[in-house]
Amino acid sequence: MGGMAVTKRQKQVLDFIAHFIDDNGYSPSYEEVARGLGLASLATVHKHISTLETKQYLKRGFNQSRSLDLGPKYIQEQRRHRHEPSLEIPLLGRIAAGAPVEAMPQQETLRFGDFAGNPDVYALQVRGDSMIEDHICDGDLVLVDRTPHVRDGDIVVALVEGRETTLKRFFREPGDMARLQPANSSLQPIHVALKDLEIQGRLLAVLRKYK
Question: Which pTM was predicted?
Answer without folding.
Answer: 0.51
